[in-house]
Amino acid sequence: MIEANNPKLTSWIAVDNDSDFPIQNIPFGIGKPQHKSPRPLSRIGDFAIDLSVLSDYGFFDDLKIENYGVFYAPVLNDLMELGKPLWKSIRNRISEIFKEENAQLRDDKVIRKEAIIPMNEVEMMMPVEVGDYTDFYSSVEHATNVGAMFRDPDNALLPNWKHIPIGYHGRSSSIVVSGTDIHRPKGQYKLDTEEKPQFGPCRLFDFELEMAFITGSKTKLGESIDIKNAEDHIFGLVLFNDLTARDIQKWEYVPLGPFLGKNFGSVVSPWIVTLEALEPFRTDGPKQEPEVLPYLQFNGARNFDVSLEVYLQPENSDKSIVCQSNLKYLYWNMSQQLAHHTVNGCNINPGDMYASGTISGPTPDSYGSMLELSWKGTKTITLKDGSERKFVNDNDTIIMKGYAIKDGVRIGFGDCVTKVLPTL
Ligand code: CA
Questions:
Q1: Domain check: are 97 and 143 in the same one?
Q2: Active site residues
């Protein structure tokens, strides 16, 4: 077992029972404390930990890190490039510093004051510079639902779906951190009942409940990542809201796939939860039938049991839960996605982001998009304030949550929040 994951660990920083960030989490993010520049942080409870201060005072000195600049950079890309053994050492070291019985920092008021910052005094920022972004389509339930609605209920899955993890290359410039509001996009669309395309504000604004993994390593062009050690390249995960204009998407996606229906904004949670922190939550994925080709075959449990929730909150009103799903439902796991992505020699870089695709579960309340929840607009969803939705309205806030619980330890991702503003 990784000692930093020990459920018995407690910290000298007080942590609420329902916090996403007990000492067993130790996520990584970038935040801007008041009057200071953006810097790498971790978090315990409601406090951010300034890694640059810990580095200043020599807490990482014996870890033999070649470039201590990684603790002062405005993005985590360089820290990730140190490689998995050092990510683990840094996380373990942070865990040691903050455990209950370690007096070194606990009893040093001067350094404590500098290194520990209340979260309400920190503005969270994009944790990485995203060089490349890929969006997969890995939930069999989502692919089946969409195929049934848009094509043919009897042949909902295309013949390739159970043989290759389907994906497309998306846009990285419009991936933004939680708390960033997004304007309803304008675009071109045509309903089946209409003769000519029109231009105007999107009429069918949607979210997609996804998680994204972020690679921490660099490979050479021509090199492939073997599925056996694919996880060695994965730094961690974030929640990912792949905002979608369904009407624009429907009109544009044949023959080359998603474009303006997707690239107006995608929102990520600010804390990267490491794959190490998720280790206790490994679980088997759905049985893959037919058998996949050898380069996609794997051993052991490669899915993770992470509960996922989506809430809609109308302006000046309470939030209502509209979806409860789980990361474990994914048919194609992250190892398969990365092995497939690089099997042709495509190179990867630290900070590259790979979204899972909408994570829908088997039951109607677990569908990860309004498209599926309202079944293409044929059903309505009633919110707590009595208002009804088929898609997302202007001034609605979309909130995504993700957390895993085992042995009394809750490892969470923090909220992924965005408000939909009217068209500019
Ligand atoms: Ca998507």
A1: no
A2: 142
Q: Print pLDDT tens along the chain (424 aa).
A: 899 999 999 999 999 999 999 999 999 999 999 999 999 999 999 999 999 999 999 999 999 999 999 999 999 999 999 999 999 999 999 999 999 999 999 999 999 999 999 999 999 999 999 999 999 999 999 999 999 998 889 999 999 999 999 999 999 999 999 999 999 999 999 988 889 999 999 999 999 999 999 999 999 999 999 999 999 999 999 999 999 999 999 999 999 999 999 999 999 999 999 999 999 999 999 999 999 999 999 999 999 999 999 999 999 999 999 999 999 999 999 999 999 999 999 999 999 999 999 999 999 999 999 999 999 999 999 999 999 999 999 999 999 999 999 999 999 999 999 999 999 9
282 Cα–ligand 1 center, Å: 23
Contact 215, 352 (CB under 8 A): yes
Domain end position, chosen among 125, 146, 165: 125
Burial grade of 260 (CB within 10 A; 0-12, 13-18, 19 or more):
middle
What distance in angstroms lies between residue 174's CA and the mean position of ligand 1's atoms? 14
CA of 177 to the centre of ligand 1 (A): 17
Q: Which of 293, 323, 288, 329 is nearest to 401 (CA)?
A: 323
Same domain, 109 and 248: no
Query: Cβ(271)–Cβ(414) under 8 Å?
Result: yes
| Gap from CA of 147 to ligand 1 centroid (Å) | 14
Residues 328 and 182 in one domain: yes
How far, in Å, from the CA of 353 to the mean position of ligand 1?
13
Residue type, 120: N
- How many A from CA of 253 to the centre of ligand 1? 13
Tell me the residue length of the chain: 424
How far is residue 363's CA from residue 369's CA, in Å, rounded to a whole number? 13
- Judge if pTM exceeds 0.90: yes
